[in-house]
UniProtKB/TrEMBL annotation:
GO biological process: D-xylose metabolic process
Molecular function terms, GO-annotated: kinase activity; phosphotransferase activity, alcohol group as acceptor
RNA-binding among keywords: no
Name recorded for this polypeptide: Sugar kinase
Record Gene3D superfamilies: 3.30.420.40
InterPro entries, per database record: ATPase_NBD, Carb_kinase_FGGY, Carb_kinase_FGGY_CS, FGGY_C, FGGY_Carb_Kinase, FGGY_N
Coiled coil: none
Domain Carbohydrate kinase FGGY C-terminal per the UniProt entry, residue ranges: 260-440
Stated family: Belongs to the FGGY kinase family.
Sorted UniProt keywords: Carbohydrate metabolism, Kinase, Transferase, Xylose metabolism
């Protein structure tokens, strides 16, 4: 007797190092998950790019794998992706060059200075919510216009990973409000719409996409997309958003006072605030949902540093190195690391910052180095939290999400360093699950507390507070005392 088909939704996220997809029942149960790994290209120092064809090819592979067994009926699809990225296409939606990635790509420093001189740094913060940094999409567009003028002359449309998937699935040209709010200085966060005078100044000739909210339907799956993906034709697709904001939705961290910590290749922090707040050291954005506002931060590396260490040790793997880090203990045997291996985003906003490992001796071990990397992330989180609160934020609850929450001491170390407890939900797979939640809300009712209840609460251990307070002071001092040296070294790495 044939098995009865189960109704489900699909969520897919295009991340920095992989694309992830989930098939989820309408009750929130995770039916299947799948991953495709990839690596951004690095055409030069400080440059990170990716071909949009990778996003679509991996989306199709994921959906075909997830829907392969004939035991589910997919009712809707949700999408998200890293960002803000800049993918420019011509009027036929043919990509003109690989996409320039978010703040890990630091090529646009000269364009930032020029735009600030033209528009005014303080006025940009007031209108757009954020200072102009290498995180913003606007200067990346300006870089293409200045450095590749022949190519830019053919550019007509702007896409990000999530909106590109929407285009390929539905034929619709659209972007969500949150992603737009990271296109500084093109979007007015006070008015909630594109700011045409500055768009014409920074991105001339680009037809900016119509705006919708992340959970709104962008369109339905076309017959052509259905043939490529295995999805049913005619099902709705969410407008989608940037991955970190989908991560926050996946664990219910979108209420006033919430702070989401995303443990991944990079570390991201999203604090939900009742009114617009600005800081030159953070990003003020609109939220993924209507009526929400955020003050956000992001570290350029976190898990990327632990991956780097794993790859340095030929016989290393994360499980073994985590065990050795636990044996090392608080303070990593007197090692202190600055995690600025790809420059740093918030709160120091320094693309020329570099990683520093201080205190090395011949007696230090792999475990000490790995522990120092985990603690460096904790110190970076504490620095961001302090700046969020200095800007007027009021953090009442911290929710953790991402691969770094699974079976490792990372969350405990961060709680010990920050003195904050963290909620960990049952499912921490992240953005793809958040996309599935929004997809489910297109076809019925779905609430995160029913879908994904709290699994555990990580509480800070008071016995380590004095040690970490002392190390945190040294951490802050170490950047100040080494910045001149690493800034002098940074240009040598461009050759």
């Amino acid at each position: 007797m044939p098995r009865k088909s189960r109704n489900a939704v699909i969520g897919v996220d295009i991340g920095t190092s992989s694309s992830k997809g989930v098939l989820v029942g309408l009750d929130g149960a995770l039916i299947r998950s799948a991953v495709r790994e990839h690596t951004p290209t690095r055409p030069g120092p400080g440059r990170f790019e990716m071909d949009a064809s990778v996003w679509w090819q991996e989306f199709c592979a994921l959906t075909r794998e997830l829907t392969g067994p004939d035991d589910t009926t997919v009712l809707a699809a949700g999408v998200s992706g890293m960002g803000p990225c800049v993918l420019l296409t011509d009027e036929h939606d043919t990509p003109l060059r690989p996409a320039i990635l978010y703040g890990v790509d630091t090529r646009s420093v000269r364009q930032i200075r020029r735009i600030e001189e033209r528009l005014g740094a303080e006025e940009i913060i007031r209108r757009c919510g954020s200072a102009l940094t290498t995180q913003a999409a606007g200067p990346k567009i300006a870089w293409v216009a200045e450095e590749e003028p022949g190519l830019y002359a053919r550019a007509r449309r702007l896409y990000m990973p999530s909106s590109w998937l929407v285009r390929m699935l539905t034929g619709t040209y659209v972007l969500d409000h949150h992603s737009a709010s990271q296109c500084t200085p093109l979007y007015d966060t006070l008015a909630g719409e594109w700011y045409d005078p500055w768009a014409a100044e920074v991105a001339p000739g680009i037809e900016l996409p119509p705006l919708r909210w992340s959970g709104e339907a962008a369109g339905t799956v076309t017959a052509e997309a259905a043939a490529a993906t295995g999805l049913p034709p005619g099902i709705p697709v969410t407008t989608g958003t940037i991955d970190a904001w989908a991560e926050a939705l996946s664990v219910g961290a979108q209420h006033t006072g919430d702070l989401m910590l995303m443990y991944g290749t990079t570390m991201f922090l999203i604090h939900t605030v009742p009114k617009p707040l600005t800081s030159p050291s953070l990003w003020g954005t609109v939220g993924a949902l209507p009526g929400t506002r955020n003050l956000a931060g992001g570290m350029a590396t976190s898990g990327a540093v632990t991956n780097w260490l794993r790859d340095l040790f030929a016989d290393g793997d994360h499980a073994e190195l985590t065990r050795l880090a636990a044996e090392s203990g608080p303070g990593a045997g007197g090692l202190l690391m600055l995690p600025y291996f790809s420059g740093e985003r918030t709160p120091i906003m320094d693309p020329d910052a570099r990683g520093v490992i201080a205190g090395l001796t011949l007696s230090h071990t792999r475990g000490d180095l790995y522990r120092a990397a985990l603690e460096a992330t904790g110190f970076g989180v504490r620095h961001n939290i302090e700046v969020i609160e200095e800007a007027g934020g009021d953090i009442r609850r911290v929710v953790a999400v991402g691969g770094g929450t699974q079976g490792a001491p990372w969350t405990q170390i961060v709680s010990d360093i920050t003195g904050r407890q963290q909620e960990v939900r049952s499912i921490t797979i992240g953005a793809s699950y958040g996309g599935a939640l929004l997809a489910a809300q297109l076809v019925g009712e779905a609430g995160i507390d029913d879908w994904n209840p709290v699994r555990e609460t990580v509480r800070p251990r008071g016995e380590h507070r004095r040690r970490y307070d002392e190390l945190y002071g040294l951490y802050r001092r170490l950047y100040r005392e080494t910045s001149a040296t690493v800034h002098a070294l940074a240009p040598l790495q461009q050759r």
